[in-house]
Amino acid sequence: MMYGVPYNELQTPTDPCSPPAGTTKKFRWVWDEEKQMWVKAPLDPNEIIGPAGKPDKAWVSVKDRMPYTILFENDSSASARARYIKITSPVEPKQDAATFELGSVGFNNQSFEIPLGRSFYYQRLDAVDSTGVFVDLTAGYDITNHQLFWEFQAIDPNTLLPPDDPNAGFLFLQDTAQSTYGHGFVNFSIKPKTDAQTLDTIGAKAFIVFDQNDTIPTNTYTNTIDALPPVSQMNTITGNGNNPITLTWSGADDMNGCGIDFYTIYVSEDQINYTVLFPKIQRTDTTFSLPPGHTYCFFVLATDRVGNAEELRANVIQCYELGGPLPVSWLYFNGTNQDKDNLLKWGTASEQNSKEFWLERSFDGIEFNQIATIPAAGNSSTTRNYEYRDRNIDQYNRQVFFYRLKQVDLDNNFKHSSVVRLSYNSISQPTPTIVYPNPTNGIINIRVGDASQVGTEATVRDINGRLLKRIKISSTTQPISLREFVNGIYLISLANKETLKVIKQ
To answer: Exposure of 121 by Cβ count < 10 A (0-12 exposed, 13-18 middle, 19+ buried)?
Structure first.
């Protein structure tokens, strides 16, 4: 049973291991997120504690690394210190033994760290000063019995053998004067199996043996798995091409899932690099304004309450041309590869005070340089067609080219067109690779436009071209971590010679 205490009546719980008045049962204080209050929870002297998860089923993601702590204690009524302790935890059906990692261990007032990433460990712990003995620790995964285990064995520092003296143990009896005496713990983590389904439960329990005594079972700690991310959809943007812009979208978590927590709205001006426009928005509509004179493209991704994040799908991006200061009506802007030339064509339905077009080229879709100036019609109420041939592109030793137009009026106001992507010596024009979020604070995602890149290797280099890491592209949407690098500009090169410039900030 839990005894609720309103938070405003008990700002700081005290005596976390003392029994309530008139009882002998111990308890611990737990902060209840749903009730927003401290609650008293019974404290079993030998128990396993796992991730709290999300209400109301202690939800966790199938991708989570789940931390557990097994607690054990030598009661004050015991006859002697514990010389040998064995703890086992059977690998449950939904636990993936291949992901098991050991954590720290401790007893009495001492704690011992185990190097990260270990699934097996042996060490003679030096506890002579505090207990009078060494302690041999052996821990790992028992493949034969399909269980996790920890063994603590006291070792006489003189004989280097298990002691015969029943008082020569390492886990003291509990002592009211020394609150840490008689208590011990082991920590570990493990992931769910990747084929686990939503509503599957993942449990953990342990069995503890002190010396030659009977086995003590702990409680079973249970969480519920949410295996799939939600799905969302940006609705078609309607309007007259002016501010403000109104976006609406919808979304749903997978059937029986824990529910959507928030949406993230992304925006791009070049249809290549998408930045976060609105992070963690919980409603399904928003109205805002952006600088006019650009074509903006948007998509939405949903994240559920346990952090399962939706990946970008094909054909979900919605674009909107926001009217600018120039009264120019665009009809089209496209291009084709013709042997060693790229032929760019565009047209306008009408022009007023139009001075010229600057044709700009880029090799990464981010930094554009002007390569030509084409005079405009000035004033025209009829259809006008233009073209420019970018010759001898083989000299650049590039397979991908990006082009855009900068239309400048007589007052030097300007407006950019959409971006055209062309592949050298390719009849078809693959869908461009999309990068989001860019800039990033650590993790970026690339959605490759060329499906043949799946299975190939990409490289990450710094701005000076120094190779930092290699990544295998395993799916059309590939996460790449830059967390280990300092803030700056990084270049991600794909096998098809496509190079993406990413900013970490």
So the answer is: middle
In 156-272, beta strands by DSSP E: 183-192, 201-204, 207-210, 216-217, 221-226, 231-234, 245-252, 260-268
Q: Among 8-17, 263-272, 453-462, 486-495, which stretch is predicted with the lowest mean pLDDT?
A: 8-17
Q: Encode pLDDT of 434-477 as tens digits.
A: 899 999 999 999 998 878 888 999 999 998 889 999 999 999 89
- Dist CA 53 CA 61 (whole Å): 9
Structural tokens at position 426: 């390719």
Query: Looking at the domain covering 329-423, what would its CATH class be?
Result: mainly beta
**Adjacent-strand bridge partners of 217:** 207
How far apart CA 297 and CA 416 sit, in angstroms, is 14
Alpha-carbon distance 25 to 3, whole Å? Answer: 13
Q: Which CATH architecture has domain 44-226?
A: Sandwich (2.60)
399: amino acid identity, one letter: Q
What topology is assigned to 434-504 in CATH? Answer: Immunoglobulin-like (2.60.40)
Distance CA 474, CA 445 (A): 12
Q: Which residues are CB-neighbours of 281 under 8 A, at least 6 positions away?
A: 262, 263, 264, 265
Across 229-274, where does the E strand assignment appear?
231-234, 245-252, 260-268
Question: What's the rounded Cα separation, in Å, for the pair 33 and 299?
Answer: 32
254, 140, 127, 150: which is closest to 197 by C-alpha? 254
CATH class of 231-322: mainly beta
- The strand pairing partners of 459, in sequence order, are 470, 493
Rounded Cα gap, residues 439 and 502, in angstroms = 6
Residues 424, 426: Cα–Cα separation, whole Å:
5
